[in-house]
Each structure stands twice: as C-alpha cells, then as structure tokens.
Write the structure tokens for this entry.
Amino acid sequence: MTTAEQVRATTLLRFATAGSVDDGKSTLVGRLLHDSKSVLTDQLEAVERVSLGRGQEAPDLALLTDGLRAEREQGITIDVAYRYFATAQRRFILADTPGHVQYTRNMVTGASTADLAVVLVDARNGVIEQTRRHAAVAALLRVPHVVLAVNKMDLVAYEETVFAKIAEEFTAYAVGLGVPEITAIPISALAGDNVVEPSSNMDWYGGPTVLEHLETVPVSHDLTSCHARLPVQYVIRPQTAEHPDYRGYAGQIAAGTFRVGESVTVLPSGRTSKIAGIDLLGEPVDVAWTPQSVTLLLESDIDISRGDLIVPSGDQPPTTQDIEATVCHVADTALSVGQRVLLKHTTRTVKAIVKEIPSRLTLDDLSQHPAPGQLVANDIGRVLVRTAEPIALDSYAASRRTGSFLLIDPADGTTLAAGMVGDAFATGDEAADEAKSAADDEGWDF
C-alpha cells in the first residue's frame, strides 16, 4: 500500500483534553506529539530555543500547543488549540481546551464533536469542582468515551493508593452523569510515564498507556443508519439557457442516507414530494449519505428556502415552537427569563424568547437548584424557549447535529448558550446501550 492508501485505511478519532489550570494538559499533548514522533524538527528546535531563553534545561513541551503570546507568558491555555497527527493505527484530531473556569465555554467547543475526552487531574489535588464541571460537560455533550488521566504521579511518589482513590471518586461521579465508558490511567506527562511508553515506576498498573488506548478505543462515525436529515443551505436556480428549469436544494447531509425516488417531507411546512435526482460534485448519483454535500432535485415545485429541513416521509422529527433543553451558558452576560434571543438550529435562525429557566445544575452533588431566574457564565441549566416560528428538532440523544442549537444575542451576535434538546444526561440504560454500540462497531471513517 502507498502512504496515501495507508492513511485512508486508518480510522479517525476526534478527542479533546480538559482539566483544571496547571493540571498539565498542554504538557500531556506536547509529550504525546513528541514521543509519537509527530513533531517536526523545526518546531522542536523553536521550542528548545524558547525554553533555553527561559533558563529551562529541558524543552517545555507545553509550548507545542500554547501558541498565543499571552498563553506562553502566563503559562495557561486560553484558546482551543487543534492539532492533527497520526500513527500507523489511527489518525487523530486533538482539541486542547483551556482549564481556567472562565474558559469552560471553550471546552464546549472542543468537545462538541469529540468521540473521546481526556480529563486530567493533578494527583496532589484530586477531583475538584472544575474536574466535575468538565465531566458534566462531557456527559451533556454525549461524548461516548472518557479517559481520566491522573497526572503528576511523580509528585506523589507513584503511589497506587493515591491513584485508586481519585479513580474511584471520579468514576462514581461520572457514572452518576451517565457517562458510558470511563478509563483511568496514571501518568506523568512531564516525565513521560504511561503517555506513549509504559512506566517502569508504576509496575502495579497493568492497563494501556494513553496512546495505546487512543489507538484501540472503538469509535463509530457511521451516521448512515441514523434518521436522514438535510438542512437546506442554499436554493440553486441558474435560470440559464442550459438549465432553464433547474431548481436544486443544496446542503450537507447531517445524518442518514437519501436515494433517488424516495418520498421526502419538507419541514416545517410539512409538504411532501419525491427525490427526482441527486447531484454530488456536479455529477448525478443514485444515493448520497452523511457527511456529503449534495443538491437534491424534487419532482414537485415546493416553496423551500434556507433553513428548511428535508427528511424521509414517515421519519419526521417533531415540529414545535416550545423547546425544552439543557444549555451550557458561555457568555459573560447573564441569560435571564424574558430575554429575547435568536435561536440557530442547523441552517435556520429564528427569533425566540426565554420563557422559563426551571433549574440550574449544582455540580457538587448533581442536584437541581430550582428557578434560579438567570444563568451566568459557565452555568449549566434547563431552559424553556418559545420560538417565533416552528422548528423541527431531534433529541440530542438521537442526533448531536440536529438535536443541538445556539442561543445568540440579537444585538451584537454574541453566542450566549449552547443547547441540547431533551434530557440532560443519559440514563443508566442509555449509557449501557451507547457503550455496547461503541464496542460492537468497528468504526467508519469520514
């Protein structure tokens, strides 16, 4: 096989790192890239120069991901840093997310498309509020796999009892949130223990290293069997001599498969037709699937515009103007009852009003604080939103693409909150089903 064929043959894993400030996320990512031979020579030389300029004897691997000047000066991660690397077994898209409380919103961004989340804990501090917050965000976003990386084991003399206590506490908390799979790994990112190579300092641990787990964890990207959904992005009408009557509805298939001759319904209008043709990259095809960007041609002339949703007839999501969801509030300004907002769902944006905020999640014990009146930055809570126009939504448990939305400030376009339709966390049965599905599926790369 050629190199290109080998790359195409490997699967893709999207994962995010999270943890509190100074837990060592950037160092872990740097160690992972360095020890897996994924760092270019000039990059490593630049890191070595900066490290020597600071009086450090060894290269500071955290500098491989902390690219902003403010990040390097303060020694913290501010923005989400995306890194792409590969091994012989798998390709990776890594999102290194900030640990500071005020940047929790960035973790929502990084984990929203992740198949796995690596949550770091400082072995000296154990599970803290920010650890619970990151676990809650991962559970809300239905990230199917969570790795607990207990870092800085070298600073607690590689004690097994320290690791076991932290792993037990975190696992109990995450299971209560409905996380389907949790893997705990003791590491030292600075020294390289159990990151890429097994540690000789922790012979009591017999599990995989971080990289071994990333290379072997089962992931499923096969959305072709899900409910088919095509949010219309653009209506194509050339009206040229060559194509005088061409009317196509273009967009990226969010989930599922569409076929020529299939009966479809357009939402929210509810009008039906049949697929007369599918254009993919300028060529007609008989079938198309997620995540391809296509143009559908229908047998009937229906009033369709950007933001409408094309779905198979008989497999329609509910259409409603009253949306109950869990949101992660990401703005500096509060979200209050009665506030007017814009709700963006796929390619559709409508006016809305926050009718009610029934509860806010207390992270310490997972209890619900009733009727808080408003949500502030980094709060997680339930909201009831009334939209000016009907919206067709799936539950977030059924589809991360068509079950999510954003609340936006109409005055300046600031994103206020990221919402997930339906129940806040997976139940025990749902989590077990998700874990079984992930274990049974070999994965499909796109």
Observations:
- Residues 1-8, 68-78, 434-446 have pLDDT under 50 and may be disordered.
- The CA atoms of residues 23 and 76 lie 10 Å apart.
- The longest strand covers residues 348-362.
